[in-house]
Amino acid sequence: MGVPCTNVIGLQSAPCVGAERSMELDTSQLLTHAPLARSPAAEVLASMKAPGSVTILSARRVTLQSMSGPTPEYGACSKPNTKEKDVAPPGGRLMVHGPIFVENPDGSITEAVPSDAKQARPKGDRGDRGRRESNDGDSDSSGSGSNANGISMSQEVEFLYSRHERVFMLLLFIQFVLESLYAAVFVVRMRPSMFELEAMYNWEISPKTAEAILWTTLVIQVLFGIVYYCMAVLSIWTKRPKHFQMFAKTCLCGVVGLVLLAYADKFNLPIFFLRLLAYIYARFLQGLTASILLLPGARA
Asked: What is the reported pTM?
């Protein structure tokens, strides 16, 4: 049954083959100049203005398709492409091609594999059965060789991590010694530090206020040091990317807090650079431990 398209385009009528009676549009909406928010009539008019396009009319939607070939006849209505409809995922879901990795709450990383996924076979296994049986020993040796390569790569990365772990522990030890000396000098020179703080603020604060500020600063530094080194030990002990990430955030907080100590005249440049270096190293070890978890033969 052919339905004239005169009411839709307002021009010469053209038969639309296969259109249903329920697909007719309201002519009063098309003749008005008020903007229509993505209405079917607006999409039809826009498709008629665009060169090299075809409007597909269906019972529920109006679809615009661009054509790379020659411009179709004016007023022609094409049928929807069934191949594209089959390829499109149901429900508007996005199909992801490639591996998907999921980070667990404990910091471990696992690969998400569909339940119906099958391991791809190498092209060499598609030969005849006799040739496969004759080369059974060679295939076993090649399979064991690939497994050995994966295990050797995992061992190399773990060896690299062990080397960097020792350097990281040495860095933390040097930092602990310097911070201990810093706290000892802080306590020994408490009285001169009070006068220096008063002089820095033009003697506008009392000695008791200066002493309270200094002791509060020392207590905060000691408490932060306890949390700082506990996080460092936890990261080294568990070797989890999540723990190294938490330690890196702790290092960043320590760097910012040390900058704020300049207001109390207690800024220490060597400790500042050591904490900044520890932050960078923690980020590096976080990525390295994440790579170890993705290698074959990694620990659970």
From this structure: 0.53
